[in-house]
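Students often ask why we bother encoding 3D structure as a string. The short answer is that it lets us treat folding as translation between two languages. Here is a chain of 145 residues written in the first language.
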Amino acid sequence: MAGLNVPLYDPRLVQPMRDELTRLGFRELRTSDDVDTVLGKAQDATLVVVNSVCGCAARNARPAAALAIQHAKRPKQLLTVFAGQDADATARARSYFTGYQPSSPQIALFTDGKLVFMLERKNIEGRAAADIASDLTAAFDRYCG
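And here it is in the second language, the structure alphabet:
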């Protein structure tokens, strides 16, 4: 998979989009090894946001994640990968999304290392951030101790 990590977008332009999640406490996974080290061994509830430059990530997914993690029950681990920027890490994270096609953005919830909830682009695009956050918090209530 050599060469996959050539960014599609200027890193300086993407940085504010990265910062939108990392300043909230999301840990950025930049390599496939980072993903395997954290997600491959995750035992706690873990939220993974596949971030991107698209409008629905900016208008819907990132704001929804920000709202959802304010909920009383929430995952212990907050992780993010950036599609179109860190391709190896994104591909590796998506390899854990068993049964789902790649999409950007995408939000996955794991418990005990198993995928238990997924929001794909089709569940994000065109919806209000508050409605997406409501879907996430319902999943948090169900799956997060």
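Translate back mentally: The domain at 26-143 is CATH 3.40.30.10 (Glutaredoxin). Keep this in mind for the problem set.
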